[in-house]
Amino acid sequence: GQQLNQSPQSMFIQEGEDVSMNCTSSSIFNTWLWYKQDPGEGPVLLIALYKAGELTSNGRLTAQFGITRKDSFLNISASIPSDVGIYFCAGQSPPTGTYKYIFGTGTRLKVLA
Amino acid sequence: NAGVTQTPKFRVLKTGQSMTLLCAQDMNHEYMYWYRQDPGMGLRLIHYSVGEGTTAKGEVPDGYNVSRLKKQNFLLGLESAAPSQTSVYFCASRTDFGQDEFYEQYFGPGTRLTVT
Known about the structure:
Number of strands of chain B: 11
Distance between the termini of chain B: 36 Å
Number of strands of chain A: 11
Radius of gyration of chain B: 14 Å
Mean pLDDT of chain B: 91
Largest interface: A-B, 25 and 26 residues
Largest sheet of chain B: 7 strands, mixed
Largest sheet of chain A: 6 strands, mixed
Structural class of chain A: mainly beta
Low-confidence stretches of chain B: none
Oligomer: heterodimer
Helix content of chain A: under 10%
Low-confidence stretches of chain A: none
Shape of chain A: globular
Mean pLDDT of chain A: 90
Shape of chain B: globular
């Protein structure tokens, strides 16, 4: 099945550093969702984006819906140890109201104290 | 408010055995989904439902059946388990209202299934 290209696949960073990750697709989306998954848990919704160019924040997290509608970016500022986990992007293609979400393969984040 | 719950959390089956996974949501959501998650594969849609009494196939439906007899529950069945069905299974739900929240999908904690 179709999947999003999510990068990087994994990253180690020092506590306090900023983190950036992105997702790209060959097709346009009308919605982008960003999730975090902790070990042994289900994905938790962090940010939802609905319009091209939209920039949305949730605490130290900021996500953007790319202008081309084929990509999205997630930034984490001043990382802390509890940011460790896997971050997934998910997109939904037009037409509006369809059921299907396409998921990225995840970015595994490890924060060194 | 429990959100999306799944039972059981863990299960070990022998090849050929059957079982049912239960998903329940208390958010009055119309849409419910079953996914499986395998290492390096992301989340893949097995089956979904757009309302009580309706079900439809996702991208990897073979070997699974589902039922949505009540709006709040979505059951996933394995009639004859195979080792290839060893995976983590997630249920999710979303509303169908005509608002931005329409697209927000919420997940349960997962069921870890091993088939030997």
